[in-house]
Design brief:
The protein is built from 21 helices and five strands. It is mostly helical and 458 residues long. It has two domains: 24-327, no CATH class; 351-458, no CATH class. Strand 3 and strand 4 form a beta hairpin. The protein starts with a helix and ends in a 37-residue tail after the last strand.
């Protein structure tokens, strides 16, 4: 018994795990993903300019809803953002080619992060995932083969990488898909309400518009979405279901791309599937001239896993688990209050609409008047503002600063509006009796001026 206990002791298990993670494996999946990733992020950078997205999001607005606390990013607004996205496009091509890879990948990671954190009007989880992947890729030795850097001898060629470079992507996608599935398990989604509302607006969509109106298809989308997100990673990991799961994934993401027009994400998700295939299989298909990584070659290559990287990994993934669960720390329905909604893989789960206007009071004279958001914001910003309490608070702070610049020493700002969640009856989202110019933002606790659900307190 003592021998058995010793064999399975925690230190030995940790050593075995460390040895497994640092084992040299064929780096073909990482190299292939670098090429695909570079192409996609280049398309994202150049495409945002060519489609007018940069103009609508960063050039036309004079104010954006940045992540709270990062107001300094407002200095990037304007035509500077054309340069930012142009640089990202170039950096993406450099990543694809493996030319000055580290510099290019770090450049894209910094610029995309700044762009992402500068505005919440066009927020989605796909942009957040792209930001995470950019920083992960900046750490990867993804330019050690099939790259300009190798050809120009900036780095030595290698046909292997430590196994953790592959496992990291698998764990990340397991977190993304699993929490996306769990988030769908709420009454309105199970009743098909968001899907029916979205598909109602696509009745004339190509040849499948009428099909999208069918109850049976909407039911398939509702429960198929839950099942896909929950099972896709295990199915890709299991050899017997891998090819079938990959085919389902291509169809699933292709359908989303065609119907919902969500940019590069579907293709990025398909590209990430490469990490679930055996590296040797990837080599045989895409890099036939690449030397075979035999057990002897792997044994001759040693990698280490420094303690600081282990600590960093534990902290990173603990944070990734905390973010989707943090809404339980707040009072109320996360779909209504939005507290704990962002960065939590709640992807395309609900639809909200509403309106809001702001009453301004000069505290010195008692005079009051109304401000309409559309007089200060783009139509898209005004629509998003009405349904997001943090943006309502930010706009109140913006109005206060605006009136102070006009010479009003002390003003109060009150938000009056109503919101509909998933087509339900409209109800007030925030307490219109609270002066939002005088309250501070509490990032780790429920804001008492936000109603916790659609029902007003008695």
């Amino acid at each position: 018994m003592n021998t058995l206990a010793s064999t399975h002791s925690p230190p030995q298990r940790a050593t075995a795990l460390s040895s497994w993670l640092t084992e040299a494996v064929d780096n073909s999946p990482l190299i292939l993903f670098r090429v695909a990733f570079g192409f996609l992020i280049a398309a994202e950078g150049f495409g945002a300019i060519l489609t007018g997205w940069v103009r609508r999001t960063f050039v036309e607005p004079t104010f954006t809803f940045n992540f709270i606390g990062l107001d300094f990013l407002q200095g990037l607004l304007g035509e500077t953002m054309y340069v930012v996205y142009g640089l990202m496009g170039v950096a993406g091509l450099m990543v694809m080619l493996g030319y000055r890879y580290r510099l290019a990948m770090l450049t894209y990671a910094v610029l995309w992060s700044a762009s992402y954190l500068l505005q919440k009007t066009s927020y989605n989880n796909h942009y957040y995932l792209l930001m995470l992947l950019c920083w992960i890729m900046a750490l990867m030795p993804a330019h050690r083969y099939f790259s300009v850097d190798v050809r120009q001898r900036r780095v030595s060629q290698s046909v292997t990488c430590p196994r953790w470079c592959i496992v990291l992507f698998v764990v990340q996608m397991f977190i993304v898909y699993t929490f996306a599935s769990l988030a769908k398990m709420y009454p309105d989604w199970l009743a098909g309400i968001p899907i029916s509302l979205w598909f109602a607006g696509k009745a004339d969509f190509w040849l499948i518009g009428p099909l999208l109106q069918q109850d049976w298809l909407q039911t398939m989308v509702v429960y198929g979405g839950i099942a896909f997100d929950l099972l896709i990673v295990p199915a890709l990991l299991w050899r017997k279901t891998r090819l079938f799961a990959f085919g389902v994934g291509v169809f699933f993401h292709g359908f989303n791309s065609a119907v919902f027009h969500i940019g590069i994400f579907p293709y990025l998700a398909i590209a990430l599937s490469v990490f679930f295939f055996p590296p040797e299989q990837v080599r045989q298909v895409f890099f036939k001239r690449k030397p075979l990584v035999t057990s002897e070659v792997a044994a001759q290559t040693s990698y280490i896993l420094p303690a600081w990287t282990i600590i960093l990994g534990i902290v990173y993934f603990s944070w990734q688990v905390y973010l989707p669960l943090r809404h339980h720390l707040y009072e109320g329905n996360v779909f209504w209050t939005e507290e704990g909604h962002r960065l939590s893989w709640r992807m395309m789960l609900r639809t909200k609409s509403g309106s809001v206007r702001f009453m301004v009071e000069d505290k010195n004279t008692g005079e009051t008047w109304w401000e309409e958001p559309r007089d200060h914001l783009t139509p898209k910003q005004a629509r998003k503002l009405a349904t997001h309490p943090d943006m309502i608070w930010q706009f109140s702070q913006y109005l206060e600063r605006t009136y102070q610049e006009k010479g009003y020493a002390d003003v109060a700002i009150y938000a009056h509006g109503k919101v509909s969640l998933n087509g339900h009856e409209r109800a007030p989202l925030v307490d219109s009796s609270v002066d939002l110019a005088s309250v501070s933002w509490q990032p780790f606790r429920h804001a008492s001026w936000i109603y916790p659900d659609r029902k007003l307190p008695e």
